[in-house]
Design a protein that fits this description.
With 699 residues, the protein is mainly beta. It is built from five helices and 40 strands. The longest helix has 17 residues.
């Protein structure tokens, strides 16, 4: 007790002496009392929302928001600590918000996790601020009166040459908050490229009649370098009934070198053995404005408007040389305009009835100038308009049911070719939660997806001496149907258990088609609608906390059944598993994570991919604004192999190995430091880089 009193007095003296340069914090005694409350009940669930309160040791150990979610082991979501992705347990995207404002991945990396009060997981929320998202994670943060903070972060990889640094600063005064963010990432790699064995069946190659040709390509050199920079500024006005956020961001990605050299051998004497060299470079930049406007019109009605405009420019240069006389130059310059406006209105006339209306307009303009061997100019004018209505009937906290219907109109103007379409999207859902420990959730969805602009490009480009490629303007949309049943049980603070089953189908999917119809009888790759894709799984998730929460373990096995029909008919059953273990010792922690290898046919091609297992061990320390960690990822995997792929079709097949940095052994040191100033700083949703604009360049 005397130590607590002395330490509290010291904190008070330091705060008084530092004035506005030092962040004022609560006393240690108050923090300990809060922790007692948290430990008493740190998870609860009902039909509308699941609420989880992180332990203090988890918040101190977590480097960022994704790390915190991983350590909390929320059963309804799946977190990959390596790729920093957050999905539902059944693989759907999760929209992440911080105090009801959309967050980017960089926002999550920059979060001060000690300020997280609780984490909420919603399914089909009716709140307009969630913008119609089906699955939502919302971080509720500690609020402060005034002040700000600055956070520095540095991350260095060894084994893979990557360096990342970021800085952002936040200052709040009364109802206003201002943020400034900047970062830089530098990556080099001398082990990028592919080995492949390709088999061609030509009907009449160069007028010489039918030919079967095998082409063997072996990588002999690879050089890759990437620099990316982001800077952004945001002003946020926040009151109980109004939220207004305006943000301007600039992003630049520069790849001055992406060169690959290969040795080529052929089974036919028509092509002598030789070496090929592909020299590629690109530079993409984008300037983006985004605004979020929320107004509580009445106690029953809320309106959210989010608008954005992006102007971008992409340069791509590619030069492929082989033999003595073959040089294929495919260069492109692209100008991009993207405009979107979305309105979300929720109306809750009573406790039982909740109506949610969505209206949206998105328009993309892409102007692409191809020059080199196949010069042309392509113009894309793609518009998407939708109107949707959702209704949620809340019987009580124990159960609710809901349904939604949206209609989407799509207009495509691609270099004089018009292709318009419209289609519905529907959803039904029901949740039953008899008490704060059990939840049963059911949902089913039906709708359409549309191909990307590049897949509809009418332009035809040459890839190498035997392959050409082009888009298909007549490509149709494809339908999807899926259903999910999940059960979650939270018996006490020590256990989190869930089980789920999923069934999904994509009908008339978009896949690649190979045919010997290119110039001079060469192979042509394009897209077409063909075949269905079925995927099913059953899975369980179990998390246990031992020794007062100092040891936390999670196990997530899944049994998958996948089947495809059509040109690339295929069937496979697979058992996968993810496991992780956390141990906390004072301010130190040890984290281990493992994911089994995977095998699957890609959703939108006939390619069967095999990826190796992934694992990571991390040791870290967090205290007084510092967080320092060292990790070893795939430390026994010395190969640079990232992926093995196979494809089999009537006229073309291949076995391919891709080399890169995704699965190679690497060792990482991360250091971050946060300094706060003022009194009760409002650390809410930190800003981030926005990324460059989506490209329609044919690749």
């Amino acid at each position: 007790m005397r130590k607590e009193i002395m330490l509290t007095m010291i904190c008070g003296i330091v705060a008084t002496a530092a004035g506005a340069q030092t962040e004022t914090s609560d006393s240690i005694r108050a923090q300990q009392l809060d922790e007692v409350v948290i430990e008493a009940s740190n998870q609860r669930i009902n039909a509308e929302v699941s609420t989880y309160i992180p332990m203090v040791r988890q918040k101190n150990a977590a480097q960022n928001a994704v790390s915190l979610l991983s350590q909390m082991s929320i059963p309804q979501i799946s977190v990959d600590p390596v790729s920093q992705t957050i999905q539902t347990a059944h693989g759907q995207d999760v929209s992440v918000f911080i105090d009801f404002i959309p967050a980017t991945s960089e926002d999550l990396k920059g979060m001060r996790t000690q300020d997280v009060k609780k984490v909420e997981y919603y399914t089909h929320p009716a709140d307009a601020r969630f913008q119609g998202a089906k699955y939502v994670i919302n971080f509720v943060m500690q609020k402060y009166e005034w002040g700000g903070y600055t956070k520095l972060n540095a991350n260095k990889w060894f084994g893979v040459n990557r360096t990342e640094g970021s800085i952002y600063s936040k200052i709040a005064y009364k109802k206003m908050t201002f943020d400034l963010f900047a970062d830089e990432i530098y990556l080099t790699n001398r082990h990028t490229g592919q080995n492949s064995v390709e088999n061609f069946r030509f009907a009449d190659l160069y007028g010489m009649g039918p030919k079967d040709v095998s082409r063997v390509s072996e990588m002999r050199l690879g050089r890759y370098r990437n620099n990316s920079n982001d800077i952004s500024f945001r002003a946020l006005y926040d009151t109980e009934n109004i939220q207004i956020s305006n943000r301007i961001a600039y992003s630049l990605t520069n790849v001055p070198r992406n060169d690959v050299g290969n040795t080529l051998t052929y089974s036919d004497a028509l092509f002598p053995s030789t070496e090929s060299f592909t020299k590629t470079s690109s530079k993409d930049w984008a300037l983006k404005y985004s605004g979020e406007y929320f107004f509580m019109l009445s106690k029953q009605t809320g309106l959210n408007v989010d608008a954005s405009y992006t102007y971008g420019h992409n340069d791509l240069n590619s030069d492929y040389t082989a033999h003595d006389d073959l040089s294929i130059i495919n260069n492109a310059k692209e100008e991009i305009h993207k405009l979107s406006v979305y309105l979300h209105l929720n109306w809750n006339p009573g406790k039982a009835n909740r109506f949610f209306t969505n209206f949206g307009v998105q328009h993309d303009w892409n102007i692409i100038n191809y020059y080199g061997n196949s010069p042309s100019k392509q113009k894309y004018d793609v518009g998407i308009y939708f109107l949707g209505q959702n209704y949620q009937h809340v019987f009580n906290e124990k159960w609710n049911v809901g349904a939604g219907l949206a209609w989407i109109w799509e207009t495509n103007r691609i270099s004089g070719v018009n292709a318009d379409n419209n289609f519905p999207q529907t959803n039904i859902n029901a949740t039953w939660s008899p008490n704060d420990k059990h939840q049963l959730y059911l949902t089913a969805n039906y709708g359409s997806m549309f191909p990307g602009s590049s897949q509809k490009s009418p332009n035809m480009l040459q890839q190498d001496e035997l392959m050409w490629y082009r888009g298909t303007p007549e490509l149709n949309d494809y339908k999807y149907t899926n259903a999910l049943l999940s059960y979650t049980w939270l018996p006490d603070n020590r256990w989190q258990l869930s089980a789920d089953a999923y069934l999904g189908m994509i009908k008339d999917r978009c896949v690649t088609l190979y045919s010997p119809t290119g110039p001079d009888g060469t192979m042509l790759r394009q897209y077409f609608n063909g075949g269905n894709y079925f995927s099913e799984y059953v899975g369980v998730s179990a998390t246990g906390k031992f020794f007062g929460g100092k040891l936390v373990g999670k196990l997530r096995p899944q049994f998958w059944i996948r089947k495809t029909t059509g040109e690339y008919a295929w069937h496979d059953n697979q058992l996968t598993c993810t496991a992780q273990l956390n141990y906390y010792l004072g301010s130190f922690y040890i984290f281990g994570w493992y994911m089994t290898s995977g095998k699957y046919q890609e959703t939108h091609s006939g390619v069967i991919s095999k990826s190796p297992s992934k694992y990571q061990i991390e040791i870290g320390w967090g205290k007084n604004g510092w967080n320092i960690s060292a990790s070893a990822y795939n430390f026994a995997h010395t190969s640079w192999e990232d992926l093995k792929e196979t494809l089999t079709s009537e006229y073309y097949s291949f076995d391919r190995t891709t080399f890169g940095t995704q699965h190679h052994a690497r060792y990482t040191i991360s250091v971050s430091y946060t300094i706060g100033y003022g009194k009760k700083v409002q650390r809410k949703n930190e800003i981030s880089g926005s990324g460059t604009a989506d490209s329609a360049i044919l690749k």
